[in-house]
Amino acid sequence: MKFLKLIVQRKILVALMTVLILAIGSYSIMDLDKELMPPVTMDGAYVEVSAGEMAAAEVERSITIPLEQQIRGIDGVESVNSTTTIGRSSLQITFDEGLGDELFNEVEAAANASKGDNVAITDVTAGQYGTTQSYEFYMDVSGGSMEEMTAFAAKVLEPRLEALPEVRDVSLAGVQEHEVLIELDRSKLAEKGLDSAAVIGAIQQVNSEATLGELNSDALRWNTKLENAADVQNITIPSQNGFVDLKDVADVTFQPVESSSFVWKNGTKDFIFVQVGRAADSTQIEMAAAVRDEVKNIRKDGLVKGFELNEMVAQADYVQESIDGVTGNILIGGVIAIAILLIFLRNVRSTFIIGLSIPTSILLTFTAMWVFDYSFNILTLIGLGLGIGMMVDSSIVIIESIYRKKEQGLGKLESVLEGTKEVSSAVIASMLTTIVVFLPIGLIGGDVGTFMIMLSAVVAITLISSVIVSFTLIPSLSEKMLKLRKPKKEHKEGPIMRMYSRLVAWAIRKKRYSFAVIAIFFLMFAGSLTLVTKIPMTIMPDMFNRYTELMVNLETGLSPDEKEDIAQGINQKLQSIEDVESNYVMDEGGMFYTIINMTKGDDITREQKDVNEEIMKELRSLSDTLPLKNVQSAMSAGGGSPVQVNIKGEDFADLQNLAGDFTEDLEKIDGIVGVTNSMERTSKEQVVVLKEEAIKKAGLTQLQIRLFIEQAFMEMPVGEMSINEENVPIALKWTEKTDSKSALLDLKIPTAEGEKALSTFIELKSIDTPNEIPHNDGERFISISADIEGKDLGAVNREVQKLINDFEAPAGYSAAAAGDLEQQQELIMDMVFVLAIAIFLVYLVMAVQFNHLGHPLIVMSVIPMTIVGVILGLFLTQMELSVMSGMGIVMLIGIVLNNAILLIDRTNQLRKEGFSVEDALIEAGKNRIRPIFMTTLTTVGGMLPLALASGTSGNYQAPMATVIISGLLFATFITLLLIPAVYRLFSVSSLRFGWLKKKQKKVKVIPETVN
Fold first, then answer.
1. Whole-angstrom Cα distance, residue 440 to residue 429?
2. Does pTM top 0.85 for this prediction?
3. 956, 326 in Cβ contact below 8 A?
4. Residue 227 and residue 724: Cα distance in Å, rounded?
5. Residue range 54-97, pLDDT digits in tens
6. What angle do CA 760, 763, 767 make, to 5 degrees?
7. Where are the beta strands (DSSP E) in 634-714?
């Protein structure tokens, strides 16, 4: 009370502090980074190891298993999953929580060391999972000759963009590259008595540059670097019969590199793909603006001629759209909240006071975000949007209490002090119960938990800011500014208040009436649970921004021609879909990363959800004719295909038989489409079988035979030269390609007795090998994947889990859900656990606040009724139950108890003043019905724009806002009747328990006195 009196009497201090907050908050808005997703480094890493065309089984034996064992031996590694394919080993590592940054360096060192241990390894890449992207702005140069477009991209676009301070680097893919190709003629080499090793040595010796020494302080330089194709043709090679020019045994040509691009635009490779990365101290929006300005300058300079420079995707646009959308929703929500206050209070001054508290609270929140180094991103903006509805609750309760005290005739200062004091405990308890529900969010595992903690923190900061403002700014302004309306001659209760009073009086008149009220409400709760199965479920909702990214997973071991066919098939399907504007397909090895742009603005004819569904359906149908496995969204939070089941075991044959049986049952489930398994596709492999006797008889060794076979497939780089400022590789291969069994076996190998066919010394045996071998923590498994069509993940999850439970596997083999199914099950368990902990913490806070073990239970009796409202809201709107709507439920637990706390707190105050239980409950309802309705409607009004939102972040915030609105509205009306009924029963029970205790005490005391 003394502190509050000091605040009210030191208005200048409050005013100056408010100005300071407004100034720092305004600066914070300008200084906060703006991005689509927060920069989060996750507790996971990946390792990609390339090994040419080595068979999958050999890669597993010599690369995957040793590397897995080494990584699993690192303390803090939680799990290791690997996929071994032809010439490739991919490992996904999960670390214990919080150890990602520390352990990644050890994993990277182990991965790099494997290259030195195995000469077959050609490349090793290791990276840590996170939300940051290397490149965030994409363009293309198309519609002209490759020569002109390459010159423009390399000499104009790249250097001018990289000169911008906002740009870190520019990557060009698909530029016209050249090579000097040397095609050796086998017969001419043999005729001159040469072999390929002599040619390679001669090229490498000639193409050199070095400092040999010094002459009178001048460096003596040796320079025989090759400068053009003619130089290469004239290289002389020493042989037994003298020197031979390279042109006499080979064709030397300077030519474009075939298929140097890994990207298709609308089915064609004749374009240049431009990726722009931003500097660390620039935002996505700043980089995009700088790049666009520079592109305008390039156009003004007349440098874009005979071709097009198109912008593909800019992440900044989605950031700006999210910021604009949520900012607009916050402003609309604020206006709605102020309008509701004006209707209820019918007092412009009080509405102005609360209206002033809104921007002050928001700017105080921005100041705190700036201090904690948070950014404007989709999660923090949603947190702000949710917080705006609750932001005025504390201020409303305090100003309404002050206003009522003034109506009772108290003086200016006294009404402020008494009014604030009367509700202070309830306001603080309400804030704490809302905030403590977020504490268990940190217990949600995985990457989703990382994001949810950030959202929770912003909501908590918003609420704390609003309470600080409500206890400082509101009392200071209320003393002088808040004035009563002209008093009426006689104050009469309205019809709503009279009806409510009669209803409460009836409900608490007798115990059986109270029991009847409670029973009716809990029957409603039980009935609502039957609707849960009719609510669609997912992990994370899609982001609808007229743009989508897909991962098209390919079969392993595909040739360049097969990949070209798939790229063309994807383009044909996408071009036939209405509202699809353009597509870009990027070859990422075993997967095509596909960017799809859709029509925007006035050109939109269909909802993006419908376009997304048709895209997925059409692309999945390609698996009937082309070697692709499945299609999934790159923007979802799933860990793989929507449906994924892993069957573990050791033997390939047994695994395939079990997979076949499980697949038959899985295909019978309605909504399951595109069932595949990881060992479905095998490759024919030719194994060399040596004829030992023939080799010995010819005076050869096994090593000579192997080297000869390796040389038969020679296609290798032998150096590099500079032509027209371009670094051009020099490649060497045979004129005649060895691409069949007969071509290899017919090759002539020199022996002491003359040339003999290779078939004299070897034969080829054909075997089937799996193209893909997955491991989970070192154990082999077969992965059965499927897509979903026409049903949601939750509905399919229940049926697939039943199938897994009923599936009979032999000893040593097991089946378990994986991918999105596994993640959804884990998240459901996490959310239930979080909900239970949140409810306990709420109970703890209220038990301390009320100093009573029973009163918190009265307040919490409204929680089941809240769930009824949530279920009805999601069922009627058919919005998905996801992580975001689950977060809304957790938040709602804190919000919805505020009204019950207000009611119970006032009831307890009245009982202390001498009111009976019945009279206290009726009077408390009358006193608190106005602030309860005001806080509820302002919260609902503030969140209504979020529930109706569309665009980039709409699908993220709408389910959460819908849950809060429907649950809060339903619970508010129920609270006003349910809480008095439960309170009445508790008060009667406590009296009875007290009588029993007294009786028991007497029984114990009498025998003692007798003795």
1. 18
2. no
3. no
4. 9
5. 777 788 888 998 999 889 888 888 888 888 877 788 888 888 87
6. 175
7. 643-648, 672-677, 682-690
